[in-house]
Amino acid sequence: MKLADLANYAQVFSIPLMVFLWLLTPERFSKFLERSRKLLLLILLLVTIFAAKRLGWLGWINQQIPIWILAALLAFFFLVIWLFRKIAGLRSKNPCSTGNVEGVDWSWRIIYGNFRQNSLIPICPVPTCRCQLDHQRIECVGDECSHCRVDHVKLVCRRCGFSRDFECNWMELLNHIQIEIERRFRTGEYH
């Protein structure tokens, strides 16, 4: 294979790659690279070995070991390393994070770098309690709430009686808490 042939292959593969990268935002592309970095490195290594074999640089290996066995051994080696790191990471990482926002402790999950709003759980901030809080919808009635246009939500602990009122509905509260937690991650308060 000549250098001109390699340049032609690179041109052919560069067009779909450019379209693919154009469709992705920088955030999505960085998340993709973060998640599949090892797989991409393995593919690059296998392509490099195949190209070196086609160029005749690995002729001495072909006489003793077929190239596909070498590629399979390398793939198996990287797979074993990846599995060990994955298992070690699962054992060492705490799957939940917690923090105090608006006077209430919150627990949440971050999966593949993405915050999961449906994992937000309010927890009683009283150190001797730490129970999950219930949310109750409070309807505005009477003259004292004539200025209100929305329902309120109240977080209540069944065990110790802690309660906290919020002047928004449940979904707005979750959205507000999510925005605040993400802000704290960006500013470095949370890691």
Give a verbal description of the structure:
The chain is built from five helices and six strands, in the order H-H-H-H-E-E-E-E-E-E-H. It is of the alpha+beta class. It folds into two domains: 90 residues, no CATH class; 92 residues, no CATH class. The strands form two sheets. It has a three-stranded antiparallel sheet, covered by helices on one side. A three-stranded antiparallel sheet has the order 4-5-6, with no helix packed on it. Helix 2 runs antiparallel to helix 4. It starts with a helix and ends with a helix. The mean pLDDT is 76.
Q: What is the approximate shape?
A: elongated
From the N-terminal CA to the C-terminal CA, the straight-line distance is 50 Å
* SS summary, helix count: 5
Contiguous uncertain segments of 5+ residues: none
Number of domains: 2
Task: Classify the beta-strand content into a percent band.
Answer: 15-25%
Characterize the biggest β-sheet.
3 strands, antiparallel
| Overall average residue pLDDT | 76
SSE order: HHHHEEEEEEH
Gist?
The chain folds into two domains: 3-92, no CATH class; 96-187, no CATH class. The chain has five helices and six strands, in the order ααααββββββα.
